[in-house]
Amino acid sequence: MAKLGKRARAAREAFEGKSNLTVEDAVALVKGNAKSKFDETIEIAVNLGVDPRHADQMVRGVVGLPNGTGKTVRVAVFARGAKAEEAEAAGADIVGAEDLMEIVQGGKIDFDRCIATPDMMPVVGRLGKVLGPRNLMPNPKIGTVTMDVAQAVKDAKGGQVQFKAEKAGVVHAGVGKASFDQAKLVENVRAFINAVQKAKPTGAKGAYMKRISLTSTMGPGVTIDVADAAVE
């Protein structure tokens, strides 16, 4: 087995025996041990008591993190005419219609968020097998199928985070960078947890939030006390 480096050993020792921390203590621990040469992303994962295979237990939503994500988000917009011009003026990175569909079908997906006007959905619908697995398919429930493309682009670039439960009932997201002020990271973490709580589906039975963990890109993880996170 490969030996751990000095930094990895120190991080493991710092986390040893620690679990179910307050949000503030978890953020301080993870942030304090994110010491890679690059600015690590602080990531949250929430294990939910749901089975996403059932429609009434699917969890998905969107939240605007109060302090942004620290990540540069590339946005693609499917629109024509005046709406395409609005999207470009708002800062969209890629704008198109059938031409953009052909690019995506060809395997080039150079964007992190996909927005479409309602009239473009017959075109975008052909890309379901490509965009769906990447969680990029536009959806009116999370505001990515809209006539207000300018606002949608601004939201996407301003720190809006989408989340969707995976097969095992886990939702996860990046909630900032290690370089963020600790208080701002705490605000982002609580905003994300609150959004997931509000997205509780009608079919959820028993405990909804079962486990919350926080980690950095290269560091160990630690669990957050679910009760402290102002949920069940």
Question: Any overview of this molecule?
Answer:
By secondary structure, this protein is α/β, with parallel strands linked by helices. 31% of the residues lie in helices and 21% in strands. The chain has 8 helices and 9 strands. It has helices spanning 6-15, 23-32, 81-90, 98-105, 121-124, 128-131, 149-157, 182-198, and strands at residues 41-48, 60-64, 75-78, 94-96, 113-116, 160-164, 170-177, 209-216, 221-224. The strands form 3 sheets. A 4-stranded antiparallel β-sheet has the order 7-1-8-9, covered by helices on one side. Strand 8 (209-216) and strand 9 form a beta hairpin. The longest helix has 17 residues, at 182-198. The chain starts with 5 loop residues before the first helix and ends in an 8-residue tail after the last strand.
Give the topology.
Blueprint: H1 6-15, H2 23-32, E1 41-48, E2 60-64, E3 75-78, H3 81-90, E4 94-96, H4 98-105, E5 113-116, H5 121-124, H6 128-131, H7 149-157, E6 160-164, E7 170-177, H8 182-198, E8 209-216, E9 221-224
Parallel strand pairs: 3-4, 3-5
Antiparallel strand pairs: 1-7, 1-8, 2-6, 8-9
